[in-house]
Amino acid sequence: xxxxxxxxxxxxxxxxxxxxxxxxxxxxxxxxxxxxxxxxxxxxxxxxxxxxxxxxxxxxxxxxxxxxxxxxxxxxxxxxxxxxxxxxxxxxxxxxxxxxxxxxxxxxxxxxxxxxxxxxxxxxxxxxxxxxxxxxxxxxxxxxxxxxxxxxxxxxxxxxxxxxxxxxxxxxxxxxxxxxxxxxxxxxxxxxxxxxxxxxxxxxxxxxxxxxxxxxxxxxxxxxxxxxxxxxxxxxxxxxxxxxxxxxxxxxxxxxxxxxxxxxxxxxxxxxxxxxxxxxxxxxxxxxxxxxxxxxxxxxxxxxxxxxxxxxxxxxxxxxxxxxxxxxxxxxxxxxxxxxxxxxxxxxxxxxxxxxxxxxxxxxxxxxxxxxxxxxxxxxxxxxxxxxxxxxxxxxxxxxxxxxxxxxxxxxxxxxxxxxxxxxxxxxxxxxxxxxxxxxxxxxxxxxxxxxxxxxxxxxxxxxxxxxxxxxxxxxxxxxxxxxxxxxxxxxxxxxxx
Length: 498
Prior knowledge:
By secondary structure, the protein is an alpha+beta fold. It contains 15 helices and 17 strands. It folds into 4 domains: 17-134, Beta-Lactamase; 150-251, PAS domain (Beta-Lactamase, 2-Layer Sandwich), CATH 3.30.450.20; 258-325, Helix Hairpins (Orthogonal Bundle); 334-488, Histidine kinase-like ATPase, C-terminal domain (Heat Shock Protein 90), CATH 3.30.565. The protein has helices spanning 17-27, 46-52, 56-59, 73-84, 131-149, 168-174, 178-181, 195-206, 253-287, 294-325, 338-355, 375-391, 437-442, 450-460, 488-497; strands at residues 31-36, 41-44, 89-97, 103-114, 120-129, 153-158, 163-166, 211-219, 225-236, 242-251, 334-337, 359-363, 370-373, 398-406, 409-416, 464-468, 476-483. Helix 9 runs antiparallel to helix 10, helix 11 (338-355) runs parallel beside helix 12 (375-391) and helix 12 (375-391) runs antiparallel to helix 14. The protein is elongated, with a radius of gyration of 42 Å. It starts with 16 loop residues before the first helix and ends with a helix. Residues 1-7 and 9-15 have low confidence and may be disordered.
């Protein structure tokens, strides 16, 4: 604020120095206060009235302690001691109390006041309300913490596309450190074939427009590309002038991959349902033709029944996936022998093994193995493993099912001489909507969710499952371990003996 020119008492055209000083004090935006060495206020300018709420009449002659919270009274003793020794207190940040009781943050500078002989007679204090500044600092600190802790890449750049800030998530996403990219062109992460995009983006920003959820490709330091969704906003200075852009980028590779898998799964589902429906339609139409022999009609009906069973199996798997996704899978465990469950699984897959002319070898332990398990789910696990082996083994192949008691567990191994798989597929085999392209071409149909159900049901029974292969073309082995329990007769005998 510019101080008004005070009157010229001497008429000389040069304002008196004291008058100038008085005008500056009166017009200052900072509180300017004086006090004696006992802390009694001797002057109080208009800004002090505005900041602290007390008028000059209310404060002059009163202790400065009226604006100091009781818990901080010790500060005044310390300040007066320094003033008496001739020291100045610079930019001391503290808390003071307004007339209405509200606490405010202030920065104060306190200087000794001397009389004409040089003797210290009091102190002058300049106080500035820094609440707004502190609030701004807090807001900036909060924003900085959010940016630094964000999982999304947050970047700023000039209107020429030069990077000005780069958060840790940007380092993780793109591979460049802040030191490597700040001051460089944003084109370092834009594939050459997409450089025209940056011209388009900067054009929109210069026009003051925002770009929301723009999906594109960006390039990492190692040269690989990543699918990202970006939102870009204009950045303005305190005068409202456009000075750059801020960008938030999110890696959507996983989302896009998951969507591709789901789309692929739906396409497979449509194909798998269409095939049995076509066979059923043909069989029914054929059996209705005049002159068809009874034996031929019976074979047509048998084909329709097999296809209906296949469709029922597909729909059961779909229902299981839905139950898993919604957490509604319910097990109904009871003490059961494993042998009959193995036989049920063999019966369920016998037609497939006959059709593909596979040799199936079975190895069972000499004594019964007992489980505390849901019989239908364990049968489903075994049937899915046998089906998987049959589908991914060329016709005329060999599959072995071996069961062995191992301490308090039973191991169930299904080994085939089929197409095998590479090490990158070891865990992916058990994921929903995940199929190896090469395997899909060689399989005998299905939705590719059988192994996901195997792992889900095995783990829910307290067991585990592992897939092994020496590599493509070298067969596969799937091993399930399940906890065993004592035979019911042994439990009953032990109870009677006790």
